[in-house]
Amino acid sequence: MIPFVLVGYFWFTFWHAGRENERREQAAFEALLRRAHDAADRTADALTRSRDTGADALMGVIWEHTGSPVISHDEERRAFTAVADRSTLVEQEPVPLVSGPVMVQRCFTYTYVRRPDAEWTWRVTERDREACRASGEIGDSVFFARVRMRAMEVGSLTRAGLQRVLEPDGRPFEERRFVVRRVDRAGQTVVALVLARYVDRYGTSGDEPGVVEQCYRFTRAVDPDGGVEGRVTAAPVAAAGC
Fold first, then answer.
1. Residue 216 to residues 14, 159, 212: CA-CA distances in angstroms?
2. Is the overall model pTM greater than 0.70, yes or no?
3. What are the backbone angles phi and psi of residue 216, rounded to the nearest 5°?
């Protein structure tokens, strides 16, 4: 009898834990969706209140409130689309030999549209997580670029110098993660315009590599004596700027 009792106990334990963990993951997803809606609503309000009408300025508002690494602008539709991966840790119901939290992740697309003489409206759509792969990779690339640019000496902060730092292996253009468009210095500030790229070498359709690009403006304060000073900030700008 004892083996049957143990089998029944373990079966019930796993079944109950599985049901509870499904409930927790669903609750986590609903919380992520609420957060996405709240962020979209705050962003639309900020866009409506903004006195700026330029694409870069409005894109900066979206970046500030959503942190989406990839934001596209459709001038004809007066629309912006941001893509971002959202995640949270969920503590699992413990079962024998299995324990610990799991990551619940969802991919969302935020769309903001303004009709003539009207407020900004928004829509949040859940996407397949593959749709967020490029956005996540570009976000990681931007973080990497900020770290590398901050460590550079002032004399090296040129277009060619920054390109070498970001692409030390000299890959061909079609494989590059970064393309430095320009580097300008005004007083104690250096501004770099960089195209961050994600290349899916397997291709979105199995034929040609899929490429997603986002232009970023990196800004860094410099030490007048030639050293390293200040953090590097980054913000996406419209593709026309690159």
1. 48, 14, 13
2. yes
3. -130, 145
DSSP string, the chain: -HHHHHHHHHHHHHHHHHHHHHHHHHHHHHHHHHHHHHHHHHHHHHHHH----SHHHHHHHHHHHH--SEEEEETTTTEEEEEEEEEEEEEPPPBTTB-SEEEEEEEEEEEEEE-TTS-EEEEEEEE-GGGGHHHHHHHHHHHHHHHHHHTS-GGG-SHHHHHHHH-TT---GGG-SEEEEEEEEETTEEEEEEEEEEEETT-SSSSS-EEEEEEEEEEEEE-TTSSEEEEEEEEEE-GGG-
Q: Given a cut of 50, is residue 42 above it in pLDDT?
A: yes
d(CA 62, CA 46): 8
CA dist 185 and 189 (Å) reads 6
pLDDT at 9: 46
CB atoms within 10 A of CB 202: 9
- The per-residue pLDDT for range 73-117, each reduced to its tens digit, is 998 888 999 998 887 776 665 655 556 677 778 899 999 998 777
Q: What is the rounded average pLDDT of the residues 30-43?
A: 91
Rank 42-46, 166-170, 227-231 by mean pLDDT and report only the highest: 42-46
C-alpha–C-alpha distance, residues 183 and 171, integer Å: 20
**Which tokens belong to 116?**
């003539």
Amino acid (one-letter) located at 25: E
Using the structure block, give the residue that is written with the tokens 């991966």: 85
